[in-house]
Design brief:
Radius of gyration: 20 Å
Largest sheet: 6 strands, antiparallel
CATH topology of the largest domain: D-amino Acid Aminotransferase, Chain A, domain 1
Number of domains: 3
Shape: globular
Distance between the termini: 15 Å
CATH class of the largest domain: Alpha Beta
Length: 327
């Protein structure tokens, strides 16, 4: 690890950017500090979406490894182009490979593939002329971005019920125009599982459950934008991460772990990621989405899961680098 030259590539952040974007700079600072403690030489570069400029920079200033913390490139739909470029230039890159970023970056495509593989995922409104259309009437639905991460665009108003076909058609048409997905809301519990590649093996970290404490009647129990980013909101302070799940419910925990590994293999994942799930009142799990290259701040879900596995922040960063160098 000593004497490695590492380029830390991150999103360009403008002044006055929202909290989810400002968090990028916290990641850069903390990851950069960890890399230096590990004996690496670090330079940072803000990525503004210009791949040609990035290629020119990499050719002019070669690096031993690109540490990729770019989280948005036209949403998540073009994030796969960064590892593609690195592969073309023969530069190791951390995190997800091009195929996993492409397949999971479009949540609708990911859901279709999960269904084909038999992995349970919430039903979604696919076609306004579908025979399944009436079955969504009277059901609680959630509208969420098709190509965004970090709970961007998800609020309490994202959860609703349509009682008439006209209302459902209006909601569906609005969702399509806004590049959103309209899916059945799973009333129940929410969990996430952090996963990382270790050579040919898949390392599954302790399961985190998001506990919605003292939520009032009628408030959706979701990890929306407020819960993640608005420090002044009720949801931010009353959505608590717990790692007691596996000890209390070992059989269900094993099922969730199996689903996480199945998703990892289905999407040809490499590096590190997180699988988000909901569990209904009957104990049935549903995979919501797979997030490659999740946040790596010291208070993030992935790092919290590493800590539960007795892995320090620096050890987690070392693990990510070693897997990228292993190729």
């Amino acid at each position: 690890m000593v004497n490695r030259e590492i380029l830390l590539l991150h999103d360009a952040v403008i002044e006055g950017a929202p909290p989810d974007e400002q968090d990028t700079l916290v990641q850069v600072s903390q990851i950069g500090s960890a890399l230096r403690r590990l004996g690496c030489a670090v330079r940072t570069l803000a990525f503004d979406g210009d791949l040609s400029a990035l290629e020119a920079n990499l050719r002019k200033k070669p690096t031993d490894l690109l540490f990729n913390v770019v989280e948005t490139f036209h949403g998540s739909r073009f994030l796969h182009t960064i590892p593609l470029l690195c592969a073309q230039l023969g530069i190791p890159v951390t995190g997800g490979n091009a195929s996993s970023l492409f397949l999971t970056g479009d949540k609708l495509l990911a859901k279709r593939l999960m269904v084909l593989k038999g992995i349970p995922t919430p039903r979604w409104v696919e076609d306004r002329e579908s025979d399944a259309w009436p079955s969504f009437l009277g059901k609680t639905l959630i509208c969420k971005p098709r190509e965004e991460e970090a709970s961007v665009g998800i609020t309490d108003e994202s959860v609703f019920t349509c009682n008439t076909s006209d209302e459902l058609r209006m909601r569906y048409d609005d969702a399509v125009r806004g590049k959103m997905i309209l899916e059945e809301y799973i009333e129940g519990r929410e969990c996430n599982i952090s996963v990382a590649s270790s050579g040919k093996a898949v390392h599954v970290f302790p399961i985190a459950e998001m506990v919605f404490t003292d939520y009032p009647e009628g408030k959706p129990r979701i990890v929306g934008y407020e819960a993640k980013w608005d420090e002044h909101s009720f949801a931010y302070h009353h959505t608590v991460r717990s790692f007691a799940f596996a000890q209390r419910e070992p059989a269900l925990a094993r099922r969730l772990e199996e689903l996480a590994v199945a998703c990892w293999h289905l999407f040809d994942c490499t590096g590190y990621g997180r699988v988000d799930l909901r569990i209904d009142s009957a104990g049935n799990p549903f995979v919501l989405e797979i997030n490659m290259n999740p946040c790596l701040t010291d208070d993030s879900g992935f790092i919290a899961a590493c800590a539960q596995a007795s892995m320090s922040y620096d050890e987690a960063i070392r693990m990510i680098i070693e897997e990228a160098l292993r190729g």
